Amino acid sequence: MLDKCITGVIARGLFPLQEHLKGHHTVAARRFLEQSQWWPASELHAYQNRKLSQFMQKIVRTVPYYRLVFEEKGLKPEQIQSIEDLQLLPFLTKSIIRSHHQALIANEAEDLSLFNTGGSTGEPLQFYLGKERITQDVAAKWRATRWWDVDIGDREIVVWGSPIEVGAQDRMRGLRDRLFRSKLLSAFELSQSNLAAFVQVIQDYKPKMLFGYPSALAVIAEYARTNNIKLNDLGIKVAFVTSEKLYPDQEKSISEMFNCPVANGYGGRDAGFIAHACPSGGMHITAEDIIVEIINDEDQQAAPGELGEIVVTHLATGDYPFVRYRTGDLGILDSTPCECGRGLPVLKAIQGRTTDFLYATDGSLVHALALIYVLRETEEIAAFKIVQVEKYKINILYVSAQTETPLNAHAIEAQFKKRLGSSMEFCFKQIDVIEPGQSGKMKYVENRLLGHPN
Q1: Among the listed residues 18, 38, 47, the one whose alpha carbon sits nearest the alpha carbon of residue 337
Q2: At 443, is the secondary structure helix, strand, or coil?
Q3: What letter does residue 152 receive in the DSSP assignment?
Q4: How far apart are CA 387 and CA 394, in angstroms?
């Protein structure tokens, strides 16, 4: 009872206060989403079209890039009234964002936050997020969390590795995590000794939920299985996974060892909080703010049930618009409503975000994002792929950004060796283009010593 009261104080008091101080209207947004999710699909579709029309009016008026796009196409914003009308507009790609970085900022935008991501294609990207976009994404995630009978303030273990999170472990962030009852374990540090410590932390803390990369949670689960450590009696209600493709063997391992369902989430800092699984199994799209198109090989909208590229228009990005943004991921829209009764559209399948681990020289597994973040922040690199070809050899294939400063491979290698061991050999090779794999997917990490498919 006390535990439940503490969760209530955090979810209804501390967290809303934090969001208010940030200038976010997250509580009101979440309450709206918890009502709109039960609207009939037709009502959601009509709401989406109205919001799309308003969004187009705003960005043509305030965003230099889209004002120019509409002028060149001879279009007026009132011509874009539905998802079908979006086909009149060009796609937005990472290269376009890089080329028109400043022109994508709305004239009236204030308090923008700079973010970056490598996405599933391995192409580093910097972009801005406004308060409306951040608010809506947080509210959508909060709604999805509550689908699983857990809430902000319930004890949580986070297995993550982004420098945005890990690097923020200063006194204020540490205080926030303690107040919200969240513990962070580094997905970059999965040595045998650290795995033993992580398992002990999980046993002692008895979290209600887990959150992290599926690959990292699966490694922890398999360590516990191998060492006959019991984790199925801790009262964990759900394991939220995101940022990578969830493989069936990973889901089975996590579910069995922690004795809980695995809830997959799909999205990114660039494209937004796109979709999340509900307890009935439907991967629901956040349709109140996000329009998903599935695009075939001819760059046309795919037929129902047809596999194609996931293209996203985020209707809360008026300050820095994402319109018909090519994610590089492949998916299928489901024409069958979810059994849960929500009117939100459903993604039937997602193929993307396959991030492998790399082996360190001591034999331990290191999350590949530990290297990816270094390359992502390197201005001299436009795109990259990391390939572990042997136990002690890793190839770094990269496309030059054509900057005036030459690539300092020795400095990058020094950072890598801190993670993987001083005897690891790194071979840097400049190439003209990063070729996709057999699936057509741009995989930015490949460990040829691991067994997962491309």
Answers
A1: 38
A2: coil
A3: B
A4: 6
Q: Each residue of 306-362: pLDDT tens digit?
A: 888 999 999 999 999 999 999 888 889 998 999 999 999 999 878 755 456 788 998
| Interstrand relation of 125-129 and 113-117 (parallel, antiparallel or unpaired) | antiparallel
Predicted confidence (pLDDT) per residue in 18-52, tens digit: 999 999 999 999 999 999 999 999 999 999 999 99
Burial letters 319-332, b for 16+ CB under 10 A, else e: bbbbbbbbbbbbbb
What confidence score (pLDDT) does residue 66 get? 98
Q: Which of 116, 99, 122, 97 is nearest to 435 (CA)?
A: 122
Helix axes 214-226, 192-205, angle to 10 degrees: 90
| Domains of the chain, start order | 20-135+268-351 (3.40.50.12780), 149-260 (3.40.50.980), 357-447 (3.30.300.30)
DSSP letter assigned to residue 221: H
Global confidence as pTM: 0.82
